[in-house]
Write a structure and sequence with these properties.
Length: 150
């Protein structure tokens, strides 16, 4: 008895379909009661994600890229993190798909590129002249008309 009326049943079917699509393409999902709580959490995170950038909740960490030959650091990869004020650290594999779905990935991506370039400039000014910076882009960003401008 997943729905007492047609409207409720269709709502639960829609939620379940949305969850199945968010998890992966080409799969099916049965409705279970936990779907409601998972969908509520997704909606809450999606809403909160819109405030993450203006609320200074996003930050970058830099993973070193090491030369196999001489074990020197030759570059870094900029990786975004979200420190949620209530939920703590939200993994990128959770919030990046949400950002792609709600369109905030464009502003977030511009911020990442700006911050990564500023950090690289700072390191270059400090004498790390051979350092390279890698930044991940989503397919949504790659298809966005503004990318060449950034």
């Amino acid at each position: 008895n997943d729905g007492r009326n047609t409207e409720k049943l269709l709502q639960k079917a829609e939620q379940t379909m949305t969850l199945a699509k968010a998890r992966s393409r080409n799969r099916y999902q049965f409705y279970i009661a936990s779907v409601d709580s998972e969908m509520r959490r997704r909606r809450e995170l999606e809403k909160d994600l819109r405030e993450a950038l203006p609320g200074n909740q996003l930050y970058l960490v830099y993973q070193p890229q090491i030369s196999y030959r001489d074990h020197r650091i030759v570059g870094v990869e900029a990786l975004i993190r979200w420190q949620h004020p209530e939920h703590g650290l939200v993994p990128p594999d959770v919030f990046i798909p949400l950002a792609e779905q709600n369109g905030t990935i464009i502003a977030i991506g511009e911020w990442v590129l700006d911050q990564a370039c500023r950090q690289l400039r700072e390191w270059l000014d400090q004498g790390f002249t051979d350092l390279r910076m890698a930044v991940n882009l989503s397919t949504v960003q790659l298809h966005h008309a503004e990318l060449p401008r950034v």
